[in-house]
Amino acid sequence: MVQTSYYDPTFSDSAFFYDRQSSSLAQRKDGRLADHFNRKVSYYHPKDVGLYHYGPLHPMKPFRLTLTNELVLGYGLHEYMDVYAPRKATAGEISQFHSEDYVDYLSRVTPASLAADIDVNRTLPADSQIHTHRIGDDDCPAFSGLFNFCQQYAGASLAAARKLNIGATDIAINWSGGLHHAKKGEASGFCYVNDIVLAILELLRLHPRVLYIDIDIHHGDGVQEAFYRSNRVLTVSFHKFGDHFFPGTGDVSETGLNEGKYFSLNVPLQDGIDDQSYVQLFKDIMGPTINTFQPSVIVLQCGADSLGLDRLGSFNLSIRAHGECVGFIKQFNLPLLVVGGGGYRQSSVSRCWTYETSVLAGVSISSTLPNTLYNGYFPGMELHPTLNNSHLIPNKNTYADLEALKRKIHEQLRVLNGAPSIQMQEIPPSITGLTEEVDDAMEEEEEDRREEERDGYLWGVHSGSRHVYKR
Ligand SMILES: [Zn+2]
Which residues pair with 174 in a beta bridge? Predict the structure, then answer.
């Protein structure tokens, strides 16, 4: 029979379905047998986390999380991961690290309450909590829904850590987390709740040693400070240092205190570092660090402001090089929690974290982006757009500087290796260890869910809002 080109049109021929073109769908890298060998990956995307807004002129745009999630779903990467829309962290859980008066203030502060705090002369009373907790300045504004936003991204990192603790996943991803600057009682650098510290505290319930790695262009000061006296958490941060660059800490001489002496590693870099130097330095430092410290779990902060052409950053990294660092850590086959962080060019951040999701899931994706509602953000639709050389920043890191830096770090690792053996310290009671408050919150949440069901709303398997359907 002669085949004709004629076929009956179907509903799925409509343009609405074009965003799932097969050419853009993810393909398993290693063939069919790979299923047995690929590690189990869990992906956390809090519902609506991308809808919050720091303010029109603020460089931090939570919307980049919506863009990332749409690309991840558009590529079909959710087929290779367990996808979760986690519950919010409770005030009690957030207080595991942050001081109670800070959490209390954070949960109450609103744009209106902040305005009322400022007197008619636009000066603050000396005892104002704005001074104490640093919420309300240009960096850390009190925007609408602020506490909910914090609860969402922190809840996702906690859920991811718990999933790793019970061995139900090998790799857990939360791109909405990674807010590494927040301090115990202070907001800092666009960060209010330090989800990384909370997640590490959770991991320490089970794991004797946690390695924290930070490839954001800013120093991971909040996490370093939280564990500066601990030998159970080794922190390593690669960042720009000098020229009054935020936050101003992260010199190579900051190595830890007391029991934690030598357990903080800092890799201070200058403007314009390129792919080759960065990736080589990263591997030359992280390989020996992992071999020396022998962590039982790794937390990787993937701030994307270290990419070339970032609005606040000044490195020249490509998405491929950033992703190569992620792939390098993955191949150590240790339980791995991956979080986001900075990143101030939304089209670059979302491409980068989508690519890194594919690296972690062990699948290859097309270099052409899938169609989404947000094609306008990606002219050319390339996953790896070429960085325009004329806009790149000259590399101020000489080969000799980087070699000298590497030698210093290796020397620190040598001393660390000779330190008294790392003792298993007291582990907090019960891995699940939920306080009464958390139990109550979970019950409340369950009740809310039942109510939503009664009202006719159900969640689909995926977390993106387009998967919410009505009965
Ligand atoms: Zn940053």
Answer: 339
Catalytic residues: 181
CA of 302 to the centre of ligand 1 (A): 9
Q: How many A from CA of 400 to the centre of ligand 1?
A: 26
Ligand 1 centroid to residue 158 C-alpha, Å: 21
Enumerate the known binding-site residues. Answer: 139, 189, 216, 218, 305, 344
- The amino acid that residue 427 corresponds to is I
Q: What is the pLDDT of residues 58-83, one digit of tens each?
A: 999 999 999 999 999 999 999 999 99
Q: Give the distance (Å) from ligand 1 centre to CA of residue 196.
A: 14
Q: Beta 27-28 vs 363-364: how paired, if at all?
A: antiparallel
In which band, very low, low, confident or very high, does the pLDDT at 29 lie, cut at 50, 70 and 90?
low
Q: Which two tokens stand for residue 116?
A: 């009322």
- Binding site as annotated, residues for a divalent metal cation: 216, 218, 305
Kindly report, residue by residue over 251-270, the tens digit of the pLDDT. Answer: 999 999 999 999 999 999 99
Q: Are 320 and 386 in contact (CB under 8 A)?
A: no
Mention every residue, 6+ apart, whose C-beta is less than 8 A from residue 185. 98, 99, 101, 102, 132, 133
Q: Which two tokens stand for residue 190?
A: 């666009």
